[in-house]
Design brief:
Elements: E1 3-8, E2 11-16, H1 27-43, E3 46-51, H2 62-65, H3 68-87, E4 91-96, E5 99-101, H4 103-109, E6 113-116, E7 121-123, H5 134-140, H6 146-155, E8 159-160, H7 161-167, E9 172-173, H8 179-191, H9 195-208, H10 213-224, H11 227-237
Parallel strand pairs: 2-3, 3-4, 4-6, 5-7, 6-9
Antiparallel strand pairs: 1-2, 7-8
Helix pairs in contact: 1-3, 3-10, 4-5, 5-10
């Protein structure tokens, strides 16, 4: 199983369970996560998303992305997963630790709230791989200041949890051993709100700041099909 699921009254905990691959987003993992979210929507109000092992999520599975025939399918699947979480009636909480990179930042950013361990680091190495983090940009452009986003994307440097909080990537810094307790506390606070009012509030926020995913995918595929992307991804995988 690529997703470990724990069900509690009114909320569900989903854990990315591919630690040997740093929880990289393979096509199989994406499909399992999307299916688990759809099931959770029928029974719960809040979803907590975590990662097994030392890393929350290292982003797209570059081994699959190196396959030209698979690359477009994988890019579209990630976009669809992000949109599923973004528009889900569930209130979603990402509890992240270790490394949160590239599409992993995207996965966190489409959740409503994010809690990080003090030792967590965040980064966008895409430019070094000849790629464009287009699907992620579609959401972050509405969440953090343009200059902060440009610095993250152009420099490709990792930032720590404190800096991530300063720019608005995360809301709380909590030691990993207390993640679940804090996320559970937040979940219960959310559930004190009236269900319909909370759901409508999320819908309104999404309507006011829609992601430009069609445009984003165009730029993702342009970069992905370039010779430099193929060369740099293959070099990274050697």
């Amino acid at each position: 199983m690529l997703i470990k699921e724990i069900r509690e009254p009114n909320f569900v905990i989903l854990t990315l369970n591919r630690p040997e691959k740093r929880n990289a987003l393979s096509l199989e993992l994406i499909k399992e996560l999307q299916a688990a979210v759809r099931v959770a929507e029928k029974e719960h109000r809040v979803l907590i998303l975590r990662g097994e092992g030392k890393v929350f999520c290292s982003g797209m599975d570059l081994k699959e992305a190196a396959d030209v025939d698979q690359a477009e399918v994988l890019g579209n699947a990630i976009a669809q997963l992000f949109e599923t979480l973004h528009h889900s009636p569930l209130i979603t909480i990402a509890a992240v630790h270790g490394a949160v990179l590239a599409g992993g930042v995207g996965l966190m950013s489409v959740c409503d709230l994010a809690i990080a361990d003090p030792d967590t680091f965040f980064g966008f190495p895409e430019s070094k791989r000849g790629l464009v983090p287009a699907q992620v940009i579609a959401y972050l452009i509405n969440q953090i200041r343009l200059r902060d986003l440009q610095e993250l994307l152009y420099l490709g440097e990792n930032i720590d949890a404190q800096r991530a909080k300063e720019v608005g990537l995360i809301q709380r810094i909590i030691p990993k051993k207390n993640h679940l307790d804090e996320a559970t506390k937040v979940a219960h606070l959310i559930m004190e709100g009236a269900p319909v009012a909370t759901k409508l509030t999320k819908e309104l926020l999404r309507e006011l700041q829609p992601p430009l995913m069609t445009t984003a995918l165009h730029f993702h595929h342009l970069a992905r099909q370039s010779p430099e992307a193929q060369e740099r991804i293959n070099s990274f995988l050697r």
